[in-house]
Write a structure and sequence with these properties.
The protein has 425 residues and is mostly helical. It has two domains: 10-212, MFS general substrate transporter like domains (Growth Hormone, Chain: A, Up-down Bundle); 232-415, Growth Hormone, Chain: A, CATH 1.20.1250. Helices cover 81% and strands 0% of the residues. It has 18 helices and no strands. Helix 5 runs antiparallel to helix 7 (112-142) and helix 7 (112-142) crosses helix 16 (361-377). The longest helix has 31 residues, at 112-142. Residues 214-220 have low confidence and may be disordered. Its main location: membrane. This is MFS transporter. Keywords: Cell membrane, Membrane, Symport, Transmembrane, Transmembrane helix, Transport. InterPro entries: H+-coupled_symporters, MFS, MFS_dom, MFS_sugar_transport-like, MFS_trans_sf, Sugar_transporter_CS.
Length: 425
Amino acid sequence: MKYPSFNVNYARRTALSGAIGSVMEWYDFAIFVYLAPVISSVFFPSKDSFGSLTATYAIFAFGFISRPFGAIVYGHVGDCMGRKPVLILSVAMMGGATFCVGLLPTFDQLGPTAVIALIVLRIFQGFSVGGEFSGSTAFIVELSPPKRRGFFGSWIVSGSGIGFLIGSASAVLTAYLLGPEELADWGWRIPFLAGGVIAIIAYYFRSGIDEKRPDRAIADEKGSPLLAAFQDHWLDMLRVGGLALTVNAGFYLMFVYAITFLTTNVHLSPTSVMGINTLCLVAIALFPLCFSVLSDKIGRKPILLFGTISILLLSWPLFWLLDHQNLYFVFLGLFGFAVIFSMIFSVNPAVMAEILPHEIRISTLSVAYNLTLTLFGGTAPLVALFLVTWTESTFSPVYYLMGLAVISLLAIFSIPETGGKKLRD
């Protein structure tokens, strides 16, 4: 397949159109997490606030469960019909579902049917996200100059951080301006409805992008890119899973579970914890751009190896810093994790796309990445709680993360250096 001449300005527009989908995805994630106590009271009114909150998080988990199914469908569409349809469909479905959550009647208005509707919308959101990362990654990396694929691929990661920050800011600002009663009455709807605006902006950017590619529909005798991936590229799928494993599980451990740990075990105020968490998320939004530029100069593997070995060696001392009431120690611990995770996040989109052949790129990436995220990312906080209860050691989640790092290192050692080289066709 002959590649077109690469244009940096066009690559920037392409990267922006891909990254804005990540903004939408993580915006929804943030507002749901931050507004979970309010949502629990609206859809699960009960004197048992813990039970209501648990039910809300269970519904949140439906978004993770449906991701692999979306990965299968969007992977097939992307490999057989092109990348652009995936980008448009995923953001339209994701934004539409988020907007509709803001329109839902409450339990008092519709009873259990309101809960069922919320579950259905969460399933739609998760389904659409299943094709978002892989579709954006393939689209951006394929249309970026070979010597700058790392940099433009990292825009997806920065978009995730920006989306989380916008989402958290909108939820906090809404709560601050309205107060508890109005927030529970109608104010919780505002951030979800605002998600529709982000979706419209994303749709505008993506609909105006031309892939500038000849017809690249799959011509595989097996008839299915996913089947071809499992039969002929199962090792590549394991590699993608290994690359995604530690950094995603680590993110959910340190930026979701650790919030609960710091407030319940260390007894820090939620305001202080969320402030530190927000500052570290700013680092995750910005640092990948820096590390990705470095990866375009020295290669992907040195960055991946340094970041993953750092998790293996530094997780224990960084978590030790978190186990203090001194806010400076806590900040240094979380910030250390943010920097390390940024290294890996920065190059993962580029290297995942670069190690896969074009004809099954989205199918392989979608399924391998989303299965890993579902099995190890979304479950990480629950696994951490189980390990702490079972071992009676607050540091047991750290050993779990270190064990995952060993598996990721095996995946990294097995892949060739791909920086600046021609994509597999």
